[in-house]
Amino acid sequence: KPEELNGLPVGKFCEALAHEGVHCGPGANAPLNVHALFSEADIYGEGKPTNAANAGRDLKQGRGTFPVSEAAPERCLNVPWFKHDRKEAIEAYAAAVRKVALAAQAGILK
User: Fold this and answer.
1) Helix spans in the chain (H)
2) Which of 27, 15, 28, 5 lies closest to 96, judged by CA?
3) Neighbours of 5 (CB within 10 A)
4) What is the C-alpha separation between 29 and 62, in angstroms, rounded?
5) Phi, psi of 25 (to 5 degrees)
6) pLDDT above 80: residue 58
7) Tens digits of per-residue pLDDT, 17-42?
């Protein structure tokens, strides 16, 4: 939450983690309500979006409909899968995240 880290954007948080040897990237899956599949795709060639073709009304849930979900990619970061229980690697990752978060809270990172 940037507001808990003196406004530090997730991209800068990821950059700081990279300096600690931890690699991740900002972002998350885009919310589906803004995906063209749910607002524009005419899958069966009916001349209108398939999601509304037989509904009798427009069912689009466009940008702004779900503000929390739509803001998630700006507040999330992707991390490794940690497919195996490698305690040392997971602890090192957690320590780096903790270090960067504490530095951000202290105002050291901008």
Assistant:
1) 10-19, 67-71, 87-105
2) 15
3) 20
4) 16
5) -140, 155
6) no
7) 999 999 899 988 888 888 888 888 89
Note whether 49 and 40 are within 8 A (CB). yes
pLDDT at 74: 85
Bridge partners of 77? 26
Q: What pTM does this model have?
A: 0.72
Identity of the residue numbered 39: S
Query: And the tokens for 82?
Result: 């940690």
CA 40 from centroid of its chain's CA atoms: 23
- CB count in 10 Å sphere of residue 79: 13
Most distant CA atoms of the chain, gap in Å: 57
Give me the sign of the Cα torsion angle 36, 32, 76, 6.
Answer: positive
